[in-house]
Amino acid sequence: SITKSLETVFDRLRGKGRLTRENIQEGLREVRTALLEADVNYKVVKDLIQRVTEKAVGEEVLQSVTPGQQVIKIIYDELVGLMGPVGQPLTFQEGNPTVIMLVGLHGCGKTTTAAKLAKLALSKGRKPLLVAADVQRPAAVEQLKILGKQLGIPVYSENGGQPPLLCEKAVEHAIKNGQNTIVLDTAGRLHIDEELMSELREIKERTKPHVILFVCDAMTGQDAVNSAKEFNSQLEFDGAILTKLDGDTRGGAALSVKAVTGKPIRYVGVGEKLEMLEEFYPDRMASRILG
Amino acid sequence: FALGQTIDEHLLEEIEAALIEADMGVKPVGRLMEELRRACQSGEVTDAAGVKGHLKARLKERFKGRKLELNMSPTPPTVIMVAGVNGSGKTTSIAKLGYMFAREGKQVLLAAGDTFRAAAVEQLEIWAGRIGAQIIKHQTGADPSAVAYDALEAAVARGVDVVIVDTAGRLHTKQNLMSELGKMKKVLSKRIEHAPHEVLLVLDATTGQNAISQARLFKEAVDITGIFLAKLDGTAKGGVVLGMQDEIKIPVKFVGLGEKAEDIQRFDPEGFIDALFD
Ligand SMILES: Nc1nc2c(ncn2[C@@H]2O[C@H](COP(=O)(O)OP(=O)(O)OP(=O)(O)O)[C@@H](O)[C@H]2O)c(=O)[nH]1
Ligand SMILES: Nc1nc2c(ncn2[C@@H]2O[C@H](COP(=O)(O)OP(=O)(O)OP(=O)(O)O)[C@@H](O)[C@H]2O)c(=O)[nH]1
Ligand SMILES: [Mg+2]
Ligand SMILES: [Mg+2]
């Protein structure tokens, strides 16, 4: 693990006498490698190492008998600080309907997460409505209908129809039927697809979501910054949900998404079952990224 | 990279950054850069244009003589099993493969081996209809191996040329799900000798270093014979498939370039490597 290798590196360096800026930098090369192997974005790592170096060349580390541990604490705190705060749970509008819009690349887990959020809302005494706004993927509507049925939550869908108008009508339908938490499941799309990105802007325009969440696969590599940045620049999302964290991916995408958009990770998906949604804890994520 | 510059540290750092950002992996890139520095010092590489050319040549030579075609059975049906983590693009990639065979005039049968996920069977059914393939399916919750077995029976009886078996997405770290996959492979081989002739791992091109763990564990479970690199039409470069070749030798055979049945291409190592440097 990085903890072990850093301790080894710094003990060896300390053996050479007083620690200097140079040998701290050498030790931090290990950190750089670990963060890149954890899929943290290259530029994010570069900035982070620079900040950590400034902190690590302080007297505390130089005088310490366990410089490796000191440096690890600095890195850990830096990661936690960067990814914080602890995931703020969703809050709902009193009285009026709350519209939650899910967006993201193909296959990241939007439909499953939509159902998970609707289940969460139900458990908090809300009256959710799931909206099948993916009219493009084969059986996407059917997929959401089945999940809705499993949860006893209604699903709004249409036979054909364009997503922006469909979503607008879904909100009107919710208001009529006393549903106060509307979860919009949109089709997966590339951030470089201008037509589909503009469709999302139109859905946003027509439904005025209270929360837009960027759903991101936790095993995403260096490209996480590209998609996160573009979705954020076009939609100003409120937060991200990192999915499939029940695997062994180190999840560096978490840091990349937060660093490049400034938006917090609100929840994490930890399984295919609909109860497998947890709040995001930056300290747990920091330990995971550091391996 | 500007051509005609002499080689300096800044250029090398730029190149290293580009390859890491293409998901090649910090250690494989490190090794590549070390070899490059030796070539610069020995005078084998003398300017910026030479740097790029040298790196491309080093990467391309790894593909010399490697077999990138699908393993087809000498007697039909050829059986292709498709696996991968959740949401990687398996079902859509199967439709693309089926469409490719159908256009060659082959009879294709799809096996709805994902009996778990909501509307997985319906999704494959729609694709079968679109590409003119037959489909074998059971009810939700059925044993996936039973579906696979059934599909082979039907394929033999009907003289089908290619059977493609869809499986449920699963994380490679889930032991029980990986054994389920191994069981399906055994069932296929018991019904038809040498089946499955091809076991494809569908990898999402946006995946980072976790792809190596995926490849390793799926290979252990079902001896993957090829990679289908899906979603390469995005901005991700899929460099991890190069980075992993030091540890896990699995040839990339196809790439997915969109959501339509025709958005498939055979893997072209030359074009892929050139694109890493764009
Ligand atoms: N292991 C695991 N699987 C997940 C998680 N979230 C979603 N999945 C699975 O990931 C796959 C894709 O999920 P979907 O909800 O269909 O993804 P999507 O973003 O709606 O896909 P598109 O609509 O095609 O863009 C399915 O097999 C889900 O069961 C998670 O947290 N952990
Ligand atoms: N842009 C693009 N999208 C793709 C490609 N391949 C698949 N997709 C999309 O990725 C999403 C997931 O595809 P699926 O075929 O359902 O993935 P899967 O691996 O079968 O998912 P599970 O069965 O849930 O594990 C869908 O929205 C597809 O349209 C590709 O090459 N390019
Ligand atoms: Mg979906
Ligand atoms: Mg599938």
SSE topology sketch:
The complex is a heterodimer of chains A (291) and B (278).
Chain A (H helix, E strand, L loop, with lengths): L1 H13 L6 H17 L4 H15 L2 H5 L3 H17 L14 E6 L6 H14 L4 E5 L7 H12 L3 E2 L6 H15 L3 E5 L8 H14 L3 E7 L6 H12 L3 E5 L9 H9 L3 E5 L7 E3 L2 H9 L1
Parallel strand pairs in A: 1-4, 1-5, 2-3, 2-4, 5-6, 6-7
Antiparallel strand pairs in A: 7-8
Chain B lengths: L8 H13 L4 H16 L6 H14 L16 E6 L6 H14 L4 E6 L6 H12 L2 E3 L7 H15 L3 E6 L7 H17 L6 E7 L5 H13 L3 E5 L9 H4 L8 E5 L7 E3 L2 H8 L2
Parallel strand pairs in B: 1-4, 1-5, 2-3, 2-4, 5-6, 6-7
Antiparallel strand pairs in B: 7-8
One guanosine-5'-triphosphate sits at the interface of chains A and B.
Greatest interface and its residue counts?
Answer: A-B, 45 and 40 residues
Total count of helical runs of at least 4 residues of chain A: 12
**Fraction of helical residues of chain A:** 40-55%
Order of helices and strands of chain A: HHHHHEHEHEHEHEHEHEEH
Large-scale geometry of chain A: elongated
* Sheet with the most strands, sense and barrel status of chain B: 8 strands, mixed
Q: What is the N-to-C succession of helices and strands of chain B?
A: HHHEHEHEHEHEHEHEEH
Characterize the biggest β-sheet of chain A.
8 strands, mixed
Percent in strands of chain B: 5-15%
- Pick out the low-confidence regions of chain B: none
- Report the C-alpha radius of gyration of chain A, rounded: 22 Å
Secondary-structure class of chain B: alpha/beta
Write down the Rg of chain B.
Answer: 21 Å
Please report which band the strand proportion of chain A falls in: under 5%, 5-15%, 15-25%, 25-35%, 35-45% or over 45%: 5-15%
DSSP summary: helix tally of chain B: 10
Instruction: Strand order, main sheet of chain A: write it out.
Output: 3-2-4-1-5-6-7-8
Proportion in helices of chain B: 40-55%
Mean of residue pLDDT of chain B? 94
